Amino acid sequence: MTEMQKMKKRKRNAKAGKRVKGSRGFGGTKSGGPRLPNSLLSQFPVLKPHNGGLGTDGNAGVDDEDINSDEGEIGGLDVYEYDEPMPEEESMKNRRYDHVDNFEYELPEKFEDSNVSSDDGEEEEDYRGFKDIKRSSNSDVLSGNETEEEEDDARHDRMLQRITELPAEVFESRPQIRNVVSEAYLESEYNPTRDILDGSGHLTIQDLLNPVQGKPVYAEFRKRMQRLNKKSLTLQPPLPKVAQENLEREVAYERSKKDVTKWEPLVKRNREAPTIFFDEDINLGFSTVGAITSEFEPRTDFEKKMAALVHDSKVAEAHKEDGAKLLELNKISLEDVKDRQNRLAKMRSLLFRHEMKAKHIKKIKSKTFHRLLKKDKEKRRTSIDVQMDPEAAKELAMKQEFKRAEERLRLKHKNNNKWATRILKRGLAVQDEQTQAAISEQLHQHALLTRKMNSMKDSSSGEDDERSDEDDDDDDNLDLGMKSDMASKLLTKAKEKTFEVMEDEDEMPKSGVFSLPFMTRSLAKKSEDARAEAKVALEEYDLALNQHDTDVPNNLNKGTSSGRRVFGASIKQPEESSHVNNNIGRDSDDEDFETNKNVNVESARSVSLQKGVQIDIDKLNEEFDVGQDFESFDHLVRGNAPKTTYESAVFASGSWTGKKNPNVAGSTNGKSTGVAQHDSSYDNLKDADDNDDPESGEEMVDGILSSSPKPDYELPSQADLIRMAFAGDDVEQEFEQEKIEVLNEENPEPEKTLSLPGWGQWTSLQEKYGLPSWITEERENAKRRRDEALSKRKDAHLKNVIISEKINKKAENLHTKTLPFPYTSKEVFEQSIRVPIGPEYNPVTSIVALNRPEVVKTTGVIIKPIKFEEVNPHEKGSEQNLNSKRDTPKVKKNKPNNGKVIKTTKTAKKKS
Amino acid sequence: MEDDKDSELISPPVAAKKDALDELDSKVKKYLRGSGTDLEGLKDKKLKGQLAVREDLYGKSAKAAAKAEKWLMPSEEGYLEAEGLEKTWRIKQESIIQEVDILSSRKAFDMILPDLGPYTLDYTSNGRYMAVAGRKGHLAIIDMHSMDLIKEMQVRETVRDITFLHNELIFAAAQKKYPCIYNRDGVELHSLKEHGATLKLQFLRNNFLLASINKFGQLHYQDMTMGEMVANYRTGLGRCDVMQVNRWNAVVGLGHSCGKVTMWKPTSSAPLVKMLCHHGAITAMAFHPGGHLMATAGQERRIKLWDLRKFEVLHTYTGNAKSLEFSQKGLLAVGNGSSVQIWRDQSGDHKYSRYMSHSMVKGYQVQKVAFRAYEDVLSIGHSMGLSSILVPGSGEPNFDSWVANPFETGRQRREKEVHSLLDKLPPETIMLDPTSIGNVRPEKKKKEQPTKKESEAEMQAAIAAAKSAPLKNKTKGRNKPSKREKKKHEGIARVKRPFLDQQMKEQQQLLKKKQRIAKIRSCQNLFGNSSRSSSDIIS
């Protein structure tokens, strides 16, 4: 066998090893495993010589790859060159290999690693493959020479046997003879033996036990060792991790499968249950205050003290008894009382002092307060003084004079100071309101102080006062007197006054603000107005005076009506005069009303005219009974002139009616007053009668007719007849037409554009070949679609019915947009909601069940994980649930938990 | 109550003879409201389970309800039974009155009010109060329990119709120019001028709407809580004085002079249904309280019964009717001339036949017939006043005080007012089939293109989605905020692009169209001018 061949063979073997499983068979059970207990190892030397050659090879295999290859090479070379099975003997002589023999069992891990990494370039794909590799690599070298060597051995033995005729056993032990090779150095810890250097300092348990020999522990150890040796079972090599896990998972899957399937009926039941209850167990532990307090344990010092006192056996005993002892226990020492009193006294004094302080502080007022107070006081004092004491008044005057003088000198309040100038420079309009106010205030102050003081004897004001006094006097006189001559006096006085006023007004002020041009203009205007008024007044006075003279006192009223404006004081006059007049005569009252109506001043002539009217009215008054009208008119007149009195209202009504119906006023005897003077309600009634519907009239006729002996025939009214006459003109055809229209509107006919000549094709072509096929097709399609739509209509087969197919957008919200999730057909959904579930439609017994939610749970209740219970998988879960909604407290479903379980099963499956 | 009193003439109920179980079954069926879902066809196991549970609950509920009905509502409506050759319609009111107890016999009366013209009337929903309106302005409210006149007044105007609003405190009268609302004391609360000269008034109780039809055929709906005018539609079919509300779905039916019946809801300007019922003008119409049956009377001497589910005629009878009315139990009163007939559905297949008849003094013209709820009484308003007759089997014998309580106290009335206001239904709930509320929305006609608004909304949604889309964490250099921002913007732009493209395309199309139109116009102008000029030349 060439070396190359050998190598190849080895490789093949390595490969074959993957395939061949039974390669373990070689070394018997003892040599196969890489990891053997030490007890076995100790026996190993017995075997060693037997498979020495093999051992070397095996060792070489076990050893580093280099060694292996070297060895292989050497072996190969030997074999190749000499062609003898000699090298075994030779190698036997080499002591090193013997030791290597032992070494083999020390490093199984390393062996694995090296093998994986270097020897077999192929990566292991599978556990089995890996195992094979390992086994094969373990045995490949052996197997390399296996057959020949064995044969050689056997041959050799047989040969020896034949020669020596000795039993085979003798030769078997032959390899035990060792050739001792002396070391180059002394064996010591400094010169370790070769095998130690090579890493196979090999210790057996026996070695370890040797030192303890003879000690009492030894027997025990030995016994144990023996036991171990006795039970020396060959252990399988542990499976690689991947395979182990794989197996584990397999088993786990089986188990969990079993575990999970037992839940299945339970889960199924819960899934099928329409409602799941979670609130069975609602025991929350403590519920009463007593229960909570009983658990209380004193922790702080204070609490402990309290507890000690409370739970004092003496106290408790005293309580248990009549309680008399409690008093004894309650004794306080004198010191304690004193202490307490002292403490209280101290506290009280502190409190008192604090109070006093607060009071004091409260009394303290600010500087400004005092200043203001002082000012106030001063003011009060001066005002009083001035009033009471001429001296003080003088003093005050002096003071003020002084102030004024000072102001004139210093011009402090003029806008000269820094603040004011600054503000003015910046512009007053820009300033905020307060600044503006301050500036104006200052100016005002200045004006006040610098104004030339008016002397006390100002002529105009004095006169005014006088005059007003006079007026008052006059009024008084009038009030007292109430006589006609008084009136004339008054008039004359008024005249005088107006004259005076007119004269006064002529004087124009020549200086001050009023001298400004626009002021003068306005003043002039005013005065002119006033003068005009005064003139009018004067005229009136004249007139009044004249009339007064001719004993017509009522005209005074007119004068007053316009004179009112001029004199504020004379407002009272007309009323009073009217009072006077009422006493005098009725006709005057009438006129009073007239004046109230038209306010313009009337001349004497108009008065005479009025008189003419008065007569008429009087006549009228005599003629008709005013009765009811009176009140209504009274209201009206009051509305117009609230000052008129009761009597005047009566006659005012007369004139008012005259106004209303002018023809009546014009010709008193023309129409009967009764016609004009309708009772309003009556009038309305009449109106209603007049305006009554013509139909109602007809109906009345009907009513009369109805008493005629023909009961079944009702004479129709003209309108009805006409309606009937034109109604039934071929209604059916009309209806058909209408239906067609509606159909056309709701399902419009297909477009006609396609039939236009030349549409989509040249006209000439179209003429030749007719319409192109696509057009006809499209048309047909459209027509068919329309026909389909029409045939689908509800009224398709009803000749005389049109049912609108319009979709009501507003009602769209009342329908579901799409089919809800689990449903797949509309019919099923609609059938499922056909029964109302409200309380109005269902008996109380079923209303709860109908509306129960999917999960019933009270807040705060802890949802406990699902518990296993036996459920008959074949029973109907829903029914049971229905029947015993609350009676089966264990029907629980824990969704999350279920989910978990399911998840695990899924994952297990995935893994496997 | 009152039915037990019609003792002798009324036999024990037929139903009692039937098997009790069978009866219960039928009741259960009623409460189940149709068949359950076909669970076999379902593929979704979970849904199947859920639905099975639901159905079970429904079944139990229905059973409980049926039992409750059986034990708590024992009264059955009575009816007249003839013996031998006797005919029920030959039995006179006098003989009925003789047989019934005193209390019931008092319910029949004649009130002669000759002056103020034909009378119309209306009952409150509990049948306790009656509002009476004479054509010539006579209004009155009567408490039918004590026969007290609560208020009587004269409005001195034509009054065409009267109706109670939600309770007896307020009523509306259609007067000459416009309807007015009065309270019980006769104080005019409102005048609804917008309605115009109304001919008929109807109050939709659940929706608090007052519906009116005026001389010009305009239908008005006014909300009686807020006063808002909900709808104003022109029927376009001329004057119309027949109006009835279908109490089941609150759809208003109008009978027109062209023989058409139209049905309206306040949220649609076009009628829901328009049907040609008669060749002559419609004179009266009535809806069965069940909502699926309608009776119409035409001027061509026909009375028809319609199935409103199929809109088909069930039966046609010959006869005139001035006024039609269905009772709570489904009797049909037909008032014509001076006689009133009551029809009854004996077999249960809507084949109405004559049950009773009553003729008043000759010459009286019936204006309006109205059944009193929860009583076996029919009131007739006619040209000479009011009459009231006993009609055994017309009223619902068991009243539900939650629905309508004839013995309502003031406190209960107030309570109920509040409740009914809270339960007020918006106008859009009025539709032909109110049971379809909650169902899947009917499919729209598919549009070729989404509207601008929709596309805008779509774009916004897409942009929002792009904005909120999470960004990946990139490696160090590429995870800068600026880069992230850029990336985000890019994403938004990418999302936006198709929409913008679409918009651009549309705009371009529009532009092209405009250009084309402009070109055509200019061409036309050109041609027109040239032709004109050519014509000029020729001339």
From TrEMBL, chain A:
It comes from the Eukaryota. Keywords: Nucleus, Phosphoprotein. Residues 62-73, 461-478, 689-701 have a biased composition (Acidic residues). Residues 1-79, 105-156, 452-483, 570-594, 654-714, 872-912 are annotated as: Disordered. Residues 7-22 have a biased composition (Basic residues). GO terms for cellular component: small-subunit processome. This is U3 small nucleolar RNA-associated protein 14. It comes from Stephania yunnanensis. The lineage of its organism: Eukaryota, Viridiplantae, Streptophyta, Embryophyta, Tracheophyta.
From TrEMBL, chain B:
The keyword Ribonucleoprotein does not apply. Residues 473-487 have a biased composition (Basic residues). It holds the Pfam family WD40. Gene3D superfamilies: YVTN repeat-like/Quinoprotein amine dehydrogenase. One of its GO terms (cellular component) is 90S preribosome. SUPFAM superfamilies: WD40 repeat-like. It comes from the Eukaryota. Residues 441-456 have a biased composition (Basic and acidic residues). Keywords: Nucleus, Repeat, rRNA processing, WD repeat. Residues 458-469 have a biased composition (Low complexity). WD repeats lie at residues 275-316. The keyword Protein biosynthesis does not apply. InterPro entries: BING4_C_dom, WD40/YVTN_repeat-like_dom_sf, WD40_repeat_dom_sf, WD40_rpt, WDR46/Utp7. Residues 354-434 form the BING4 C-terminal domain. This is BING4 C-terminal domain-containing protein. It comes from Stephania yunnanensis.
